[in-house]
Specification:
Strand order of the largest sheet: 1-6-5-2
Bound molecules: zinc ion
Structural class: mainly beta
Strand content: 25-35%
Number of strands: 6
Largest sheet: 4 strands, mixed
Number of helices: 0
Length: 72
């Protein structure tokens, strides 16, 4: 009997690019994002962050909201 093993070496990964309008919730429903931040030494809070955020669930890339987004 002949057996053939096939190894799957590549994986299809679909990720959304949602950059543009700042969003709070991803299309997958997740509200948890991964961002690059810099800490403020005095307040010990986030002092600065980059606007590209990555969804913690599905890996979609989106634009992070800022304080002035809601102002007209
Ligand atoms: Zn997502």
């Amino acid at each position: 009997m002949l057996c053939v093993e096939v190894a799957l070496t590549s994986q299809l990964v679909l990720m959304f690019d949602l950059r543009g309008e700042p969003i709070f919730v991803c299309v997958c429903g997740s509200k948890m994002w991964n961002l690059k931040v810099m800490w403020d030494n005095e307040t010990r809070q986030v002092g600065m962050y980059l606007l590209d955020q990555v969804c913690d669930e599905c890996g979609a890339v989106a634009t992070a909201p800022t304080e002035i987004d809601g102002c007209d």
